[in-house]
Amino acid sequence: MPYIGVSLHILVAIFFAVHAIRHGRELYWLMILFAFPLLGSVVYFFAIYLPDSRLQYGARKLTTATLKALDPGKELREAQQAFELTPSAQNQMRLAAAYLEAGDAQQAAQQYEACLQGPFANEREMLLGAARARLQNGQANAAIELLLKIRQHHADFRLEQVALLLAKSYALAGQHQAAGEEFNKATRDHGSVEAYVEHAIWALTQGDKNTALKQREQIEQMKKHWQSHHFSMHKDLLKRLDAAFAAVA
Predict the structure, then answer these.
(1) pLDDT tens-digit series, residues 213-245
(2) Left (φ > 0), alpha (ψ -120 to 50) or beta: where does 200 sit?
(3) 58: pLDDT confidence band, cut at 50, 70 and 90?
């Protein structure tokens, strides 16, 4: 039995070592993982693997949606009050994010533009929020600029989100070959429901129904293993997908 436990620890360490190599992590992580298989794996999971995983992103989205449903305007009100009392760069970043989540892309973009001139101009969360605001505000090329900056300086940050936002930005800018490459990257590398849905919807706008059907087939395969909460979590995405197919039927 002790040998089974040791073998399991080594297998977990190998899994994280492969993840570290594929994502260009520092080589000292390999030494930590194999010198201390159990402790090293635990540290790597919380320090590296979890922050960029879909698990944490999904939990964050669910928490945000729940709080928003209970009191839709609370975060925006509090962010406005905080910025009025202390107009710091951090409070302005919070206000910009609150406008974005409230659906006011124009105000969000204005606040983010000011943040881009401040001390946190290269902060990755801020860059991502500013890119989202620019895209929602119709500023496709400006969004692309920020997303490429994220890739250059924060290569392992929110890989799926960055790929999907780039794909949408390229599509809005009329660069459909680049958009297709980014959608392919998102579905190939991450394979989430969101990636498949966004890829399918874009393909339908390009008259490429075969590609759209392939993405929907992937979702149908995933749905065979879903529990009820999965259907609830992805309800809005599935509605958008059904509406897109209905529009071209």
Answers:
(1) 999 999 999 999 988 888 988 999 999 999 999
(2) alpha
(3) low
- Tokens 């040998």: give the residue: 3
Say what the pTM is. 0.72
Grouping H, G, I as helix, E, B as strand and the rest as coil, residue 216 is helix
What average pLDDT score do residues 132-138 get?
Answer: 96
Give the residue extent of every domain in the chain. 2-49, 70-157, 160-249
Let me know: does 92 contact 114? Beta carbons within 8 Å: yes
Which SS3 state, helix, strand or coil, does residue 207 take?
Answer: coil
Q: Annotate 76-91 with b (16+ C-beta within 10 A) or e (fewer).
A: beebbebbeeeeebbb
Question: Could you tell me the fold of the domain covering 70-157?
Answer: 1.25.40
Answer positive or negative: Cα dihedral of 75, 80, 84, 89: positive
Q: Are 83 and 91 in contact (CB under 8 A)?
A: yes
- How large is the average pLDDT for residues 6-19? 75
